[in-house]
Amino acid sequence: MKTTIYSDNEKFISGMTIKDQMEPEQNNMALHVCENPEAILDNRKKLAVFLSCGPADFVCANQTHSANFHKVTSADKGLGAANADTAIKDTDALYTYEPNLVLTSFSADCVPVIFYHDTKELAGVVHSGWQGTVKEITPKLFAHLKEEEQCEPKDFRVHIGASLSQEKFEVDEDVYVKFKNLSYADDFIYLNEKTGKYHIDNQLTVKKQCELAGIPEDRITVERVCTFTSPEGFSYRQDRKSGRHLSFIMKKDK
User: Would you call 21 helix, strand, or coil by DSSP?
Assistant: First the structure.
């Protein structure tokens, strides 16, 4: 089971699965884009073994590039784990205080954000494609966690996973204008005058959003791997039938 681990301490384990030619469907983790659902369930079982839990401990969302988030409780255990139809509806971020639940986010170019809070012992995941970024799902979630869950921003630890690089994320003016309107993304945009296309660094835009939310820069890590160019990356832009990475975090039981 090829997996990049972002954190593994006494309280949390988090990471991101990667493409693997040796696994069924190249280690695709998504039931909504697969040829054989049983292969996906087998891949998830292997991840569960790695995490010393069961596949039924997974909690999955039906991601729609929204700015919606959901507080996960034990009642949500297993949603979307074996059947995509049971996934939490219209949601692109999850967080929880509960131990032994694997919060999941699926991506193939979009930016995965994985985080935990040292003192509140809260954990979460965000799926931030470019639409989620311009809708500001990440800062909206952190504002909610500060106001409603009393989480001090300085105590978050954030891991931004592999996604489409700025070189490969080329867009037309309509998308450029949406990023330009954020007012803080200018440093992460350039125009290729030969093609007339704009290139945007979605990863660093999301990182900036975290910093503006009050999270110290030295508590944010970014995996600068391009899902388009890396042989270990799933890329929807490269292949519309692409599988999906699974980014995850689990709070450990004490």
Answer: coil
